[in-house]
Amino acid sequence: MSSKTRRLLEPAVFNSQNHRIDIEIRDELAAYTTGDLIEGFVSITTRENDFSGKPIIKFQGESRTKVERPFTYGCMRANHVFLETEQTLIRDHTHQSTFHNGFIHRYPFCFIVPGQLLPQACRHKKTDIAVEISHAMLPPTLGDSSPTGRCGWPKDDMASNMARIRYFLRVDFIKPSCDTGANEIWLSKTKAVRLIPKYQAVPPIDLFESSWHCSHKERRLSQGLLNSRSGRLTATMQQPRPIHIHGTRGKEYGCSSTAAIMNLSFVTAENASPPQLQEIRSELHACTFYGITPWTKFPTLSDQNYLHYDGGRLFCRSSSCVNICVASVHWSRTSKIIAQCKLHTSNDDHEIEYTASILVPVTPSKSISFVPTFHSCLISRVYSLQLGLYYRQSRDSLFSSMLSLSVPIQITA
Question: Which of 205, 78, 204, 196 is nearest to 137 (CA)?
Fold first, then answer.
């Protein structure tokens, strides 16, 4: 990124010897959402006797990605300006653009956060209509801690420093060049804002390969010095209800809680007792896909060639949730008969099955600024929920064993 571009993106106040520009947002919020008004004034102070210029304000959104190539020096960058709306600033009492010495001039502005992007914002090839609909939605602010407001949001959104999504107001002063007469930007100032657009829950889409998502797992348990098999432990889990973000429109930031149900089954033919349950630990995994070329489909870990050689990358972080003790969980006992082949025996073999269902609350960490699940042209964010069940195979076991399940989970706003 050039020094000029970096200067324009920073929300610092432009303050020179002769001019000063301030962007004042009326009732500034910590985060804005779909349909919100972003309105206020641009204040311009000049000390020159006579200055002419045309002030223009823009509401812009852009995504920036950076990818380091293996076995090469340097990195490749991509920049996508997906949102740009413009207004010409006009004073209420005069249409002249001449500023007198020592005066502060205020120019009102008003923008509305759109519900979706214009068609020209995403023109690349896509595999299906679901990808096209996702790319037409505004992505949330990601990896940008500069926006401020009355209600503070946590700065950590578990994003990579190689992927950024920013929204900002930019004021440009345009006047004719003394040499060519063409219009040029003479002064410029930006102010960042945070956007968390509305995102509704969608039908579950498995964005990971089987090594990441596992909603069913079995374990053969053994006991005694000879490690004789005592039974089979089975655990299953389904995708829980989405987590909802609240904190826009002046409300304090926070996320709703959800719950996952882990169903357990222990089958034994040796009249053995079920395993001794200890605790369940839950974690939220945030996975950010980013690349230097637009995604033509929903990115997955199975796209190894693209992820490593065609400019795509994956960044994952985890956040611990609530750990619960399950030592007092009650096992329900049932019996079932397994019919044997008459060529071998005329007797039926009886198995004993123990079942239990555990409701696991999922409460996101308050120190993390979660963003909704989204897919854009260059950047995507998805989440998964991992539950780790710790248990002892028998009362005589000295060490604990662990069985983990992982399912996708959505975050909405």
Answer: 196
